[in-house]
Amino acid sequence: MDLASIVGLVLATMLVLAGMFQQGNLMMFFDPASILIVFGGTLGGIILSYSFKQLKNAMVSMKIAFSGQSNEAGDIISILVSFAEKARREGLLALEEEVYELDDDFLKKGVQLIVDGTDPQLVKSIMETELNFIEERHSVNKGVFDTGAELSPAFGMIGTLIGLIGMLAGLDDPSSLGAGMSVALITTLYGSLMANVFFIPIGAKLKVKSKQEILSKEVMIEGILSIQAGENPRIVEEKLKAFLSPSSRSGLNSENEGGGMNAAG
């Protein structure tokens, strides 16, 4: 589990509820008509904007925002350097037994391609094409939450207008003014809460996780091509470390020194 996502969502929700409770009565913020306008309108707008398949993929991607699944490029570099050592010592065909141990389908495909003796340019083309489609899918998934962040405040404003119209239409009946004003204000509240507590943070977390995954796959492509070219494992490691920030490189150095990773010359 991604603890930061859980803590952030719970903290934002609890503090907003505590602020509402300080007003004396939590139920004063509950209005069925406002829920129908904002929640129903936002949901309908999102469904109208995307296909059901895209919406299903976006729901699956939401799990990624809360999962602790690691896409650390440093972990990938360690694996690729060990593959480079084995390939240099025993040949590319020796990597075939490693393919079945890999969990990442992208890395598994790349290693299988070089084991099969595929032309290096074709390996690069296949993996870069797949990476482009992964980026496109990530963009669509994030777009669903970005659309929710845009629509929910908009439907809050629509609810405000509906409430004001109802209030003005009932000027002859003072008892109806309160209900109209309630809808006008609470819809704005609901729209802002949906955007700022849910849609915007989830979209931002998906963007961060997508960047991490894309970086790790770029490292995989470079590493696989270097292994296929028969480069020295030390060179492979240095090339791949260029993808990392200085702090991440120092962490990788510590791991390698501790793990006694030996690069064959």
SSE layout and pairings?
Layout: H1 3-21, H2 32-49, H3 52-66, H4 73-90, H5 96-99, H6 105-115, H7 120-169, H8 177-228, H9 233-241, H10 246-259
Helix pairs in contact: 1-8, 2-7, 2-8, 3-7, 3-8, 4-8, 4-9, 6-7, 6-8, 7-8, 8-9
Describe the structure.
By secondary structure, the protein is mainly alpha-helical. The protein has one domain (32-246). It is built from 10 helices and no strands. It has helices at residues 3-21, 32-49, 52-66, 73-90, 96-99, 105-115, 120-169, 177-228, 233-241, 246-259. Helix 3 crosses helix 8. It is elongated and about 90 Å long. 27% of the residues are buried. Residues 258-265 have low confidence and may be disordered.
Which key features would you list for this structure?
single chain, 265 residues, mainly alpha, 10 helices, disordered C terminus
